[in-house]
Amino acid sequence: KVEESKCTLPPHTVTPTNIACHGDNTGSITITPVGGIAPFQYSIDNGNNWQSSSIFTGLGADVYNTKEKDINECSSQVIDVTLTEPAALDCNITLTHITCFDEHDGKIELLGTGGVPPYYYSIDNGSSYQINGLFENLDAVTYQIKVKDANNCIIDYTRTLFEPDEVTNLSFKI
Questions:
Q1: Whole-number Å distance between alpha carbons of 91 and 52
Q2: Nearest of 160, 159, 170, 167 to residue 102 by alpha carbon
Q3: pTM reported for the whole predicted model
Q4: Which of 84, 140, 74 is nearest to 107 (CA)?
Q5: 169: which residues sit within 8 A by CB, 6+ positions away?
Q6: Using CA of residue 129, residue 134, residue 138, residue 142, what is the dihedral sign?
Q7: How far apart are CA 55 and CA 120, in angstroms?
Q8: What single string gives the DSSP state of each residue in the chain?
Q9: Per-residue pLDDT tens for 6-57?
């Protein structure tokens, strides 16, 4: 049960940090008192739970109802803070398979979506990245693809380029 305060503190300031990658719990809220008498207690759930630290970490995307109270149980009005997250990082992948046996003309085209642009692309399991999503002159092998956004969120894919079988024992009748 939340009890009403007998006195009201001036509005506190709030410093939010939004979530870096979709689905993570990397958000934080810092509450800074503007008035009252220390020590303070802080809440992000409308005063249902209090803590002595003004910093709340490990938060997901949500609306948080921030409050503070001082040693005299004077509390501030609620300030709602919304922590947001980017859309899920994804990638459209287009494969162009090798045209003839033992050729090296395969292509992988990558186009990042969601997350936070710009996107960086790798087909060697993240050993190297490039801003351009087009990889050409590729062999018929399996590629470990990674797409990274500006927040260093990474998504992984595995794709294989194929080539036709070698043609042998051709015989022609004329």
A1: 43
A2: 167
A3: 0.80
A4: 140
A5: none
A6: positive
A7: 33
A8: -PPPPSSBPPPPEEEEE--SSTT---EEEEEE--SS-SS-EEESBTTSS-BS-SEEEEE-SEEEEEEEE-TT--BPPPEEEEE--PPPPEEEEEEE--SSTT---EEEEEEEESSSS--EEESBTTSS-BS--EEEEE-SSEEEEEEE-TT--EEEEEEE---PPPP-------
A9: 788 888 999 999 999 999 999 999 999 998 999 999 999 999 999 999 999 9
Q: Quick one: tokens of 64?
A: 């948080």
Q: Enumerate the β-bridge partners of residue 50.
A: none
Query: Residue 151 is encoded by which pair of tokens?
Result: 């927040």
If one counts every other C-beta atom within 10 angstroms of the C-beta of residue 105, the result is 15
Look-up: residue for tokens 């922590």?
Answer: 83
User: Which long-range contacts does 149-152 make (Cβ < 8 Å, 24+ apart)?
Assistant: 149/86, 149/89, 149/112, 149/114, 149/115, 149/116, 149/117, 149/118, 149/119, 149/120, 150/115, 150/116, 150/117, 150/118, 151/20, 151/21, 151/86, 151/115, 151/116, 152/20
How big is the chain, counted in residues? Answer: 174
